[in-house]
Specification:
Nucleotidyltransferase, domain 5, alpha/beta, 13 helices
Length: about 325
């Protein structure tokens, strides 16, 4: 098996999971990586000379330094970045652009070279840097407390999901969540298919169970892919899930409270949506048409885990 280094996002997730007390095998399972990869990352990039702690910014900086030292000396010209500039305009990440170019036989431009090009452009007064996604926000510490969310009778725990759902072996198994705006009760509901990454977005006037159910049932009926199961968190907006099960013929499962990695596809998709709807943005004026435009953008963006195919292509492969 060919070894692939962790991405920057994975390093931040690794650090967060270590702080929660998870073991290396548990972290490896949450990230979909081999445990040896996690051991190697921690051993190689922890601050052993200080306190032995693992710090993602320092680890990422060390990786970039090592890559610069090992560069093959390939010279890139301005013409090599013409397509890069176009794809940045579509809010693709440097890694997605690099993978796309490689997949389609274009001249290989590493994501690190694209980042350096962006920073040089910014220093010269350019605006390419504005196409990059927001950096990860610092997370507040979570303290142990009684969790009263999701105390529903008869709900199915995520551990009861069939093995094909866990292994993403078939289509039709989705994850659901709501994304809230600032200053109003308006929000959106997102559905992500686990095997293809295909995304659906619906506008909600509020986070009530009635609004959530109505929008979710509409999305299910209009979905181009089958919807057999849905995995949710323990938010109160999902308390009337049995109505959706009855009307849409699906099964609901619920993740463990505060275990966001159990719904990794949805967490990742919500992070991508925040590029278009930042946290301080009011969603009062957001329309369903705008939600569908964001859908199209993200469903046509290549993903590393699919060999830089898009969710749209993955959907068609299963059709």
């Amino acid at each position: 098996m060919k070894y692939k280094q962790l991405t920057e996002n994975e390093r931040y997730m690794l650090s967060a999971l270590r702080k929660q007390g998870l073991s290396v095998p548990q972290i490896a399972n949450a990230l979909g990586r081999h445990r040896t990869t996690i051991w190697r990352e921690v051993k190689r990039n922890s601050c052993w000379s200080i306190d032995g702690a693992y710090r993602p910014p320092i680890a990422q900086r060390r990786i970039r330094v090592r890559r610069r030292k090992s560069r093959s000396g390939i010279k890139l010209t301005e013409s090599d970045f013409i397509l890069v500039r176009v794809l940045l305009g579509y809010e693709w990440s440097p890694e997605q652009i690099s993978g796309f170019l490689k997949r389609h036989g274009h001249k290989c431009v590493s994501h690190e070279s694209i980042y350096q090009y962006i920073w040089r452009d910014k220093a010269a007064g350019g605006e390419l840097w504005q196409c990059l996604r927001q950096s990860l926000k610092r997370r507040r510490k979570r303290y142990k407390a009684y969790d009263s969310r999701g105390r529903l009778a008869d709900k199915r725990h995520i551990s009861e999901r069939p093995k094909p759902v866990e292994d993403r072996q078939e289509i039709g198994h989705w994850e659901i969540d709501t994304v809230i705006g600032h200053g109003t009760k308006d929000c959106i509901v997102t559905l992500v298919e686990r095997a293809t990454g295909y995304l659906l977005i619906g506008k909600l006037p509020d986070r009530t169970t009635a609004s959530l159910n109505k929008a979710t049932i509409r999305l299910i009926k209009n979905s181009p892919l089958p919807i057999k199961t849905i995995t949710a968190d323990n938010g109160t907006e999902f308390h009337q899930y049995k109505e959706i099960e009855k009307r849409a013929k699906v099964l609901f499962y619920f993740a463990t409270p505060h275990h966001s990695w159990e719904r990794g596809s949805n967490e990742n998709a919500n992070g991508l949506i925040r590029q278009y709807l930042p946290k301080r943005t009011s969603m009062k004026e957001v329309t369903q048409q705008q939600c569908e435009a964001i859908e199209r953008r993200l469903n046509s963006r290549p993903r590393k885990r699919f060999g830089f195919k898009t969710p749209w292509e993955m959907k068609n492969d299963y059709a």
